[in-house]
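Can anyone check this?
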Amino acid sequence: RVLDEVFAEADRIDRLMSTYKDESEISKINRDAASAPVAAGAELFSLVQRALDVSVLTRGAFDITFDSVGQHYDFRARQRPDAATVEAARPFINYELVELDDSSSTIRFAEDGVRINLGGIAKGYVVERGVEVLRQNGIRQGVVTAGGDSRLLGDRRGRPWLIAIRDPRGEGAAMHLPLIDEAISTSGDYERYFEEDGVRYHHIIEPGSGEPAGGVHSATVIGPDAVITDALSTSVFVMGVDAGLRLIGNLPDYESVVIDADGRIFYSDGLAPPAPEK
């Protein structure tokens, strides 16, 4: 029964925030917000506000308006926008073009052509809500996972949960992390992508260029809130190893593991590299 409640909550959020559903609230915003302010429910409005706060924190490395270009990709069909399309849409990747009115909970776009997508933060919200459902039903230990985002509730019967970070270019795990009552999110270039002429085109867009971000294969962030770890893992991926780990170094309670394009593994200051196996 409780599992059914968790999945029902995930379905409810998907109906609210999926850009693939024409009837969702976010689809209505994308259709109409350039013409007039669109009323958003308190839940969606709050999550968009949190996303814009992360945009400010990361100086635009995280930007939900990436979909102004991202909408032109179809990874299943192996289709990508041409250079002219990217160049025409790139100016609309700018979180400052999303205007929120707290008094009326409305969202407006400053320019026609802006489109938002909560794919970099909504799964974190889903797993946080799932864990809250477990808590409300008296469950003290569990894991809720959605793609690369997991929220751990308590421990694993007196021991830590052992969470794998995937090897982005191989089979199995690059490492395992022992965690208790934490959130962990990984953004990688291996989930939604296709390759063409030796170039990997993936879904994590670098806002400045409108092109898939390079230099990193995966970025993992650990912390107390899956909404934030979800957004920060995308941010660190876009920012790259040095700037990304500097960002994490300034955020108490959050840590990161980054695997760069050469397969090298980097850790934030609060994480010690694992001891070599004997």
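Reply from J.R.: I decoded it. The two ends are 44 Å apart (CA to CA).
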